[in-house]
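Morning. Coffee machine broken again, so started the prediction first thing and wrote up yesterday's gels while waiting. Chain of 780 residues, entered below exactly as on the submission form.
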Amino acid sequence: MIERCLSAVSSARPWCTGLVVTLVVALIAAPASFAAPSPQDPVPPDSAETDETGVATEAATGSEERAAEEKSYRLFEELLIVGSGEVRVRVPGSAHVIEAAALERQGYQDVHRVLRQVPGVNIQEEDGFGLRPNIGIRGTGVERSSKVTMLEDGVLIAPAPYSAPAAYYAPTAGRMEGFEIRKGSSAVRQGPYTNGGSINYLSRAIPNSFEGDVELAGGSGGLRRAQAAVGDSSERFAWLLQAYEMGHAGFKRLDGGGATGFDLTDYLGKLRFESAAGSRVRQAFEVKVGKTEHQGDETYLGLTEVDFESDPYRRYVGSAGDRIVTDHEQVQLSWEMRPHDGLALTTTVYRNDFHRNWAKLERVAGTKVASVLADPGRYATELAILRGEIDSAAGALAVRNNRRDYDSQGVQAVLDLRFTRGRADHELDIGLRVHEDREDRFQENDSYQILAGRRVFNSLGVPGSDANRIASAEAVAFFVQDTLTAGRWTLTPGVRVEAIDLLRFDYGVSDPQRTGQDATTRVNSLTEVIPGLGVAYALDSKAVAFVGVHRGFSPPGPGSTRDVDAEESINYEAGYRFDSGAGRAEIVGFLNDYQNLLGTDTTSSGGSGSGDQFNGGDATVWGLEAGYGVNLWTGSRIVLPLNLSYTYTRGEFDSSFETSFADWAPRVTAGDRIPYLPEHQLNATLSLRANRWALNADGHYTTQTRIKAGSGPAVPSEVIDGRTIFDLRAEVDLSERYALFAQLLNVGDAAYVAARRPAGLRPGMPRSLSVGVRARLGGR
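Came back before lunch.
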């Protein structure tokens, strides 16, 4: 495979909870010599912090002088955008960074709420808490974020990003201190999914000096949350420990009573060793380990239209006992070497293991629950069973144990080289990743029935009798990207190469011992060259115009047959960016010209869960992204930053075909709209901040969204209605060390449809109030 990858490179054109207690004790017993932080001063009117959401390209990181003074304890691929002012303005292409200060002011624990403020990002809610994100970028599918490259600290983080990219695991948003979103030609650095871009979760960095904090919160719906972190650095040794725990009783009401909430625990540790001061070659070695456990009483079963109108938070008794259990473990070993200024090599070895079992209702009296909810008149008896209105025969309810194990591992290296040739400054980045991952499905259906309005257990299924197969992938990826600056011009040519081998080994449902005697295999191999080019021209020190073009790519999965092609596109963007310090704005137009759009059969999309893929042929997605940030108040004691972001997206099929893929079936006609793409999205954030208190208001509007391919007026049952949601948060400093905060989500208590797939209507989160306290120690 490596030879195949290198061959492609040579032919490509260069352009082409215990911790919480421990830390509480540490905070109480800390000696007075540890200086507590002073109250935050108001931000001057011209501060870059007015762009806290990364409206133009990035949340403010402060001046270049401040960046030079601070030591960095984060080891992974460098952020695309650094610095501020003219440096940031001149960056070609679209990229956004949401930093810790903005995350803290907004207080969001749901990654959907965090990312909806970034133009070009599409989300599809599901459980109200963002525990299983559905995210797309610039018109890619949102299903389980499977068309977006998901990373944590620059490392692929989906359970099996090549062989099973549907991310039933995502890093806990509440423990992050930043997010980086790359789009356009800048996405070439990250892969394999480059049609839309990448989302990089930035975990908490090791602090420069002793630092710790504890945050405790509780609220409506039985919400409880505790998070704590403590770390320190010396000349050659640094460390960080972090714990995050969250639980909720659930906002749905199960017929007959029962649990509908969840519990989540997430622990992270980092150790770093550095070479001695004055060493000829600066080196650092960092170890990162993490563990996340989640148990949730969640289901795919929704409601009929009539029942949703009556009580949107009702849950049928047929789903009683549906439960998901997950366990994720990660290990990263990173080594950074800097022989001299302008040259750095970072190598990371990583391993991720993920197990999940989601026991959830699949069929009632032999009929898929999705069919029952889609046509309740035809399946009146089955619906009555789901509601617990009539008794059923034994085994009428089939509950599938969706038991799967995932692992992914690899090694990646990135060489950063900075030099000057003639009048041009170069920032050359070269990266190599060798990766393998695997998904192991071993599933069966257990039998239940309804008696006297209760779900009653009947019998266990035979292990492996529903699905019994292993999908695996091996991949070698290589990229080269040069950021060349000369005078007013900045050019960023780059190329990425992906060489991928895919295998699906199906033992069959009658071979639980996995002897392999009747096994079938599917094999697929491909090598793709993904070039990109971004060009920026500085109109002056405050404004820049830029254009970009790159090849989009999403690999087929191991479940694909040989007649299924990779998802490919040619993507274009053009934009204008302005940053005066006091305010900034950006407007970008984009067009993704698909040569082939892929659809994947999954249970969560209303399909059978086979993993089979379907060609969608030619398609076009185009749109407009705009952002604006300004400080509305210029007084010396108060700041009033406003940030606006807007996204227009339109996607259409350019060819006609017949298909059995649930989102498109049964027939697509050229000109039909691509589903799950809201046409308009608008987000507004207004903050009022003074010395000791702050208020933050966030509003998000999204228009009606189709859930099936089609054109003309949409059938009501095939759309998710538009909605406007407002959130508020207030915080006050009680002292230099302690602060109180309160947050109100969905202020208007809007009862809205969050999802219609895979089986009926499911609601978004109702109005939710939480209050809490934060204690800090050290220099943060």
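The chain has nine helices and 41 strands. Going to sketch it on the whiteboard this afternoon.
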